[in-house]
Backbone:
């Protein structure tokens, strides 16, 4: 690791879809890993301006911004994006995503302790309390273990969370880190008017001003051909930071707790400009789909993870009536065609 970044954060020193690997990396990571550990109805989704809600009956509204999760949804399947952002169909919690949320909370809270007390036993001791808090703030997660009266499956699941937390200590030393920000909400508006929003797990800043953006993943590192997709989320965050602070982050770092890998990338301005162009193109496609009501499914192997098969034409389902005005529509119903893989 770059010594200027590592030393800067030491205490006492300032401290997939088919085809396009970028699409597959973003989409497959979210499906298999629970993504960032935040469910579709989480803070990031809400901050993303009409992220998927977990309750029915929300008033439909056109999208107003993009987050990394919603970018991944649209690239994976435009119809999935519609279901989550416009229809706001409810989704059941998953064990993987909920475990990711729990582990993220533990790693964030550990930094409340003095540096010398940031140990693996201390971190694991936070798990029961953070699980209780999660059940209070998101009661729907209780149903994950409704059929587990003896608590055996819950105990195994909590044990898996402990293993992920413990593995983190083999990858980073929190006693030598003093993050500048944790769970940092960021938002920037581009010249086009597009708003970009998200939540960054951790930001480390060197005394010289160099910035490292860190994201925790509770799944396994992607295969090399999908690494670019995994880094797209980080470049998204880097773009927002650059737009806000006019500083290009020195390093982007993905910490994969499931496999014990760390993926890093040192971006340059040209990387961020390319990401901005791609986001603008995606936003134009989203705008057109919003106005026409033409949200097509893109069938891939990831369909097996989808909660919305009952509403998807690929599975014989029918999408709910489109809740927004449709440009040039002759009838309330807009048939959903099909988009080929990749």
Residues:
């Amino acid at each position: 690791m770059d010594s200027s970044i590592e030393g800067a954060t030491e205490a006492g020193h300032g401290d997939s879809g088919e085809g396009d690997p970028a699409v597959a990396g973003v989409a497959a990571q979210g499906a298999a890993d629970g993504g960032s550990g935040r469910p579709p109805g989480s803070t990031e989704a809400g901050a993303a301006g009409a992220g998927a809600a977990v309750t029915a009956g929300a008033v439909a509204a056109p999208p107003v911004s993009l987050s990394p999760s919603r970018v991944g949804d649209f690239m994976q399947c435009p119809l999935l994006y519609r279901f989550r952002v416009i229809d706001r169909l409810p989704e059941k919690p998953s064990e993987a995503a909920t475990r990711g949320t729990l582990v993220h909370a533990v790693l964030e809270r550990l930094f409340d302790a003095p540096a010398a007390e940031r140990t693996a036993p201390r971190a694991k001791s936070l798990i029961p309390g953070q699980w209780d808090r999660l059940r209070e703030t998101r009661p729907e997660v209780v149903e994950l273990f409704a059929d587990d009266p003896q608590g055996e499956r819950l105990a195994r699941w909590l044990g898996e969370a402990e293993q992920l937390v413990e593995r983190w200590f083999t990858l980073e030393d929190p006693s030598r880190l003093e993050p500048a920000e944790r769970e940092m909400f960021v938002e920037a508006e581009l010249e086009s008017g597009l708003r970009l929003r998200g939540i960054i797990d951790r930001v480390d800043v060197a005394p010289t001003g160099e910035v490292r953006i860190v994201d925790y993943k509770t799944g396994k590192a992607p295969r090399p051909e999908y690494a670019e997709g995994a880094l797209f989320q980080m470049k998204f965050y880097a773009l927002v930071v650059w737009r806000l602070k006019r500083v290009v982050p020195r390093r982007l770092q993905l910490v994969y707790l499931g496999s014990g890998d760390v993926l890093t990338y040192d971006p340059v301005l040209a990387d961020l400009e390319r990401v901005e162009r791609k986001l603008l193109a995606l936003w134009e496609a989203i705008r057109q789909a919003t106005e026409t009501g033409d949200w097509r499914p893109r069938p891939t192997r990831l369909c097996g993870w989808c909660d919305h098969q009952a509403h998807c034409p690929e599975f014989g389902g029918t999408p709910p009536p489109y809740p927004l005005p449709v440009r040039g529509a002759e009838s309330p119903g807009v048939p959903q065609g099909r988009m080929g893989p990749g």
Notes: Confidence is low (pLDDT under 50) at residues 1-35, 39-56, 329-334.
